[in-house]
Amino acid sequence: MSDTGTILAVMGRRQLALATWGLFVGLTAILLSGGIFSTLLAVRAELQGVPTLVSGGITAAYYAGFLFGSRYALRALREVGHIRVYAALGALLAAAVMLLGLTDQPVAWLALRAITGVSFAGLYVVAESWLNGLATNDFRGRLLAVYAALVVGAYGVGELVVFSFDPRGATGFSVAAVIAALAVLPVTVSVEATTPPTARSEHFSMREVARRVPTGAVGSMLVGLSHGAMLGLTAVWATRGGLGVGRTGILLAAIGIGGMALTWPISAASDDIDRRAIGVVTSLGAAGAAFAMLSLEVTSWWMVAVIAAVGGFNYPLYSIVGAYTNDWVEPEHLGAAASMIVTLYGVGAMAGPLVAAGFMEVLGDDGYPWSLVVLNALIALFFAYRIRAWHAPLMTRPLAEAGVPARAFFVPATIVVMGARRRRSGRRSG
C-alpha cells in the first residue's frame, strides 16, 4: 500500500469523516435526484401505456450505459483523478435529467436513460475506489455500509417525494436536475477531501477478477440481476395494481428505507463472519419476504412492510460482494477491481428488468414477486456452493470480540455453513 493509503487506513474517525464528507453529501444529493426522476419516468411510461417489455428495455438501457460508464470512469480516474471525474459526470447527469422531462418519446427515453447509466456507474466507481483506498479488511464492510445506506436511503427519499410532482410534466425532472447539479459542489469545494492515489493502479482484467475472486465476479452479476428486477419493474407492478403516484412512491421508498435500515448491521456482521455465509442468510431472507408478497394485495399497507424487508435483505448483498472482492486484491488493484465489480453488476442489472418483465408476461402481476423469489434463491444457492467449494473459518475474530450484528447472525450463519460443507475442497480461491 502507498504511504497515503497506509496513513488513511489507520486514520481516526474524525479524519476519515473530513476526508469523505464531501463525497457522502454529494452522493446523497445525486441519489436523491435519481430517486425522483427514475420514479417519475417509470410512472409516466405506464400512464402513457408503454408496453411492459419496452418499460423493461428503458431500465435495461440505463444498465447498458452503466457498463460503458464503469469502464470509462476507471480510465478517466487514472488521467485526471477522482474529483474532476465526479464533477464531469455530475454535470452530464443533470443535463440528461433535464432533457428527460422535456420529451415524451420512449426512443428518446432509451437514449437518455443510457446516459444517466453512464453517469451513475462512473460516480459509483469514483466513490468505491475512493472508499476502498481508505479502508482495511477490518472495517471495509462497515465503511461500504455507510456508503450503501446513504445511497439507498437518499434514493428512497427521492422516491417518496415524487407525489409532489405531476409525472407528465417537466417540473419534477427539473428539480431533480438542479439537485444533481448542486451535488457537484460538496466534492469540489471540500478542502479536507483526501483521495487515494491513482497513478499506481495496474491493469486488472475481468478474467483475472473471475479467476482470483469467482465469488465476487459471479456474485456481483447475480446481485445486479436481482437489483435490476427489483428496481426496474416495481413502479410498473405497483401502477398496474391500482396505486397512484403517491402510493407508488411510498412503496418504492420502503425498499430503500429497508435497505438503509439493514445495510449497516448486515455489512458489519460480514466483517466478523464469512461474508459468503452472511450472503446466504440475507438472500434467503429476501426470497422469503418476496414470497410473502404473493399473499398480499398491492394496495395493502402490509405490502409496504413486506417489500421493505425485501429491500432490507437484498440491498446489502452488493456491499457484501464488493467487500469480499476487495478482501482478495492488492492495493494497487483496488480501483480496477471496483470498476470490474460495477461492470459485472451492470451486466446482471441490465438483464434484471427484462427477466422480471418476462415473468410478468407469463404469470401476470404475480410474476414480479416470483422473479424476486427465484433470483434471490439463486444468489443463496451460489454462495452456498462457494462455501462448499472452498473452506474458510466461519469467524474472522473470536465471537467474544465480535460486534453485536455478528452475534445476531452467528446461529443462522453457522447453520448455513454446516449445511453447505458436505465436503471440502483444497482449492484456495475466493
Condensed summary:
With about 425 residues, the chain is an all-alpha fold. About 75% of the residues lie in helices and about 0% in strands.
Protein model, in words:
- The chain contains 17 helices and no strands.
- The protein is mainly α and 430 residues long.
- The longest helix is centred in the N-terminal third of the chain and has 35 residues, at 13-47.
- The radius of gyration is 20 Å and the shape is globular.
- The model is unreliable at 1-10 (pLDDT under 50).
Give the overall pLDDT as a whole number.
82
Helix content: over 70%
What is the CATH class name? Mainly Alpha
Please identify the structural class as seen in this structure: mainly alpha
CATH homologous superfamily annotation: MFS general substrate transporter like domains
Summarize the biggest pleated sheet: none
* CATH fold type: Growth Hormone, Chain: A
Shape: globular
| Distance N to C terminus | 21 Å
Strand content of the residues, in percent? under 5%
List the total number of helices.
Answer: 17
CATH architecture term: Up-down Bundle
Unreliable residue stretches: 1-10
**How many strands in all?**
0
**Radius of gyration over C-alpha positions, nearest whole angstrom:** 20 Å
Total domain modules: 1
